[in-house]
Amino acid sequence: MAGLVTWSENRNFHTWEVTSFVATIRTVPEWIPVDALTATIPRQYPDPLPAVDKDLVTEPDEARRLAPQALRAADTPPATI
């Protein structure tokens, strides 16, 4: 799932210092086999954390935290212009 991650940085409002980095998965590239992705994740992580807040980092196992986001992204049709 590392290849699906988009990184963002959180900054202090007053000083603009970087306070943390957050990994999220919003989209799945077209070249990823979505069927394999959606079949593999439940086998690897039968009890993934719910993807309630995309910016909430509470799980030390990053892949387990990202698993629901990947499933949600795989189920979301790509945006069209």
Give me a quick take on this structure:
By secondary structure, the chain is an alpha+beta fold. Helices cover 30% and strands 16% of the residues. The chain has helices at residues 34-44, 62-74, and strands at 6-11, 18-24.
How would you describe this protein?
By secondary structure, the protein is α+β, with helices and mostly antiparallel strands. Helices cover 30% and strands 16% of the residues. The protein has helices at 34-44, 62-74, and strands at 6-11, 18-24. The chain has a two-stranded antiparallel sheet. β1 (6-11) and β2 (18-24) form a beta hairpin. α1 (34-44) packs antiparallel against α2 (62-74). The longest helix is centred in the last third of the chain and has 13 residues, at 62-74. The radius of gyration is 14 Å and the shape is elongated. The relative contact order is 0.23.
DSSP, total strands: 2
Percentage of residues in DSSP E strands:
15-25%
Number of helices: 2
The average pLDDT score comes to: 78
The whole-angstrom Rg is 14 Å
**Poorly predicted regions:** none
Structural class: alpha+beta
The coarse silhouette is: elongated
Approximate helicity band = 25-40%
Biggest sheet character: 2 strands, antiparallel
End-to-end Cα distance, whole Å, is 26 Å
Strand arrangement within the widest β-sheet reads 1-2
> What string gives the helices and strands in order?
EEHH
